[in-house]
Amino acid sequence: MIKHLIGLGVLLAVGIAYPAIFPNNLTIAISVLLFAGWATSWDLLGGWNGQVSLGHASFVGLGAYFVAIGQSQFGLAPWWTMAMAAVFAAILGYFWGWLTFSLRGPYFSLSTIAVAEILRLIAINEEWLTGGATGVFLATLPEPFGIDLFSRTAQFYMALAFAAVVVATVIVISRAQFGYQLRAVREDEDSAMAAGIDPTATKLKAFMLSAALTSIGGGIYGVVLAFIEPHVIFALLLSVQIALTAIIGGRGTIWGPSVGALVLIGAGEMFRTTFAEANMLIYGILILIVVLFLPRGIVGELARRHIRRLYAKRAQS
């Protein structure tokens, strides 16, 4: 755990210096950091616990709407509305899991799509609160210590803090009792139950934590967008992108989702500017190559090969 925390500290130091070195590339960096945080949050449920969700855009949308509605209608600062969004998302995750965890495999994944669609329809139809299909515009924000939260630099540091907190949380959990319980349930629920672990309670805790962390990132995303529209913020495509980021980077690993975010978001932007209309084709080919030749994800496959080399050296000695 110590080496991972040291690595996080080094990356955090590099991140703090990033705006001064690359002031013109902050928008891409913000996207990478947000997806790194969302994918790592998703991985608590989908990787460490083995419950693949395709509805995590719901929690992104909740965080964004809490910030936008809280500021535009009630004058609440975003840090308060992000905290409220995290609590609400955790409660929603509890009831969501309580209703759907009796389903396994693809049936659970399909149920998450259905619940996410329900939330999107609620956002569209409850115009008095959400602005309906028109959406909500975030026109003003407080300026703590004179900092303009609409500036890309401030948003970069918010996204950096979010990603760092989520990764640090996973580092701690990976070596805690809860982390071992998550992996036990993922590998075999019946064996975990025989060992005295309550699979449903473990999955509910993972879902609640994953939902709360994702919603905080959603609140930051709301500040970045400044305009929240339900068809975009609750889109199935966003949920799939979050899941793909973790899967391609390496599910059930500490750094896999962050590597996946760097590869997918960074490569996507590079392809869009370099290959123009062919960028989606090349982007799809990249995903296909990773899935076919790195089934455990980039970090997962590297870890597997490293372990094989260690065993080979021991066998030779």
Automatic annotation (TrEMBL):
It is found in: Cell membrane. The keyword Ion transport does not apply. The chain crosses the membrane at residues 27-45, 52-71, 77-99, 154-173, 206-226, 232-249, 281-299. GO terms for molecular function: branched-chain amino acid transmembrane transporter activity. It is a multi-pass membrane protein. Keywords: Cell membrane, Membrane, Transmembrane, Transmembrane helix. CDD domains: TM_PBP1_LivM_like. It comes from the Bacteria. GO terms for cellular component: plasma membrane. The keyword Nuclease does not apply. Its main location: membrane. InterPro entries: ABC_transp_permease (IPR001851), LivM-like (IPR043428). This is Branched-chain amino acid transport system permease protein. It comes from Microvirga guangxiensis.
